Amino acid sequence: MIEAVNIRKRFRSETIIEDVSLSVRKGSVYGLLGSNGAGKTTLLRMLSGILKADEGSVRIDGGTVFENNQVKERIIFLQDDLYFFSQYTPKQMAAFYKETYPSWDESRYQGLKYILGLDENKKINKLSKGMKRQVAFWLSLSAKPDVMILDEPFDGLDAVVRKTIKSMMLQDVAEREMTVVISSHNLKEVEDICDYIGILHKGKILLERDIDDLKEEFHKVQVAFRRGIEPVTDALSLVHKERRGSVYIYILRGDKEQIEDHFLSQEPVVFDQLTLTLEEIFIYEMRRVGYAEEDII
Amino acid sequence: MLELDMRSGEPIYEQLVHQFKRLIIEGVMEVDEKLPSVRDLAGELTVNPNTIQKAYRELEAQGYIYSVKGRGSFVQQREEESSTIKVKEIKERIVPLLREAFYLGMTEEEAEEMIRKARGGSHHD
Question: What are phi and psi of B122, to 5 degrees?
Fold first, then answer.
């Protein structure tokens, strides 16, 4: 379990992280969303113990992360800009990882070599951007960490490799309850694998929710009555209302069946449940907490 | 076998519950057949394992599957109830169609006539 309590980070006069608290359950995949410059990378660096928070604390399973090797050898942090020793091959990097991570799994390393089809004797510097990223995942997954912290990890990977890597990560989550924090500026990229989403904006967490809870809470329906009469919606919790001709479109919070009963009892001519994407839900939630900018996600 | 729609407003775990139910009701999955392990399914569908666990818990609560500790989840024996559920699903499909038909001017007599036809008999009251 990762627990950050009231952390702050300032560089010179600029506040990058302003009072963030978050907790990630063991075995959970937490998606940290935010636009460029929201502070995601800084926050992840503090979670993984590379940066020290000016105030507040970051703990993993109760132990402080910063400058604590016992905790750090259980964490893998995959940075946005990957770092490899110059002139090293994957094989040499693997030897280094083996020393660093007691949980290193050699047979998995060998297995992944086959799955990813990479040459372990080729200098990493000579590889393409996407292949470097694959090497990074290859090493990370072989280290079998308890916690994986990933900063924009899927940039530059093709769809097939992306799926392979997501799949391996999720198997570790299922099998060993590995905890994952994954940042992205794109909800679509991570919504399939996350069970929890937090939105960071200007150094603050604006919203933190269980994905299923969110989807169950919001509904979109279209209703129409004869002669264009407006439906009665007094008893419902309206988030958004729109009128297109004689058809009314509502976004509502609450129980699906209750909403259905409510409208059907008024005998509408048209009544349909429309699909609401997670993205739309977030936009409405953001508006509710007072943010109009739709480009946050 | 399973097809998930990430863009749908329906939570992933509910989609899984519905699809497994259908497979079970239609007999594609047989009684005592083992469901895929959470780990395998998470990997295969690239879906969070907690989501799959939630779906399995729900299926178990509704009596579609049972779990054996350390061995996995299996399809539960159930006969009568599955047909009532199917009837409910069919009702859900018919009602909107009927509503449309009534809107377009079909009379109740015509609807009754249809029901008689569907039954295949020549029942009169």
Answer: -120, 50
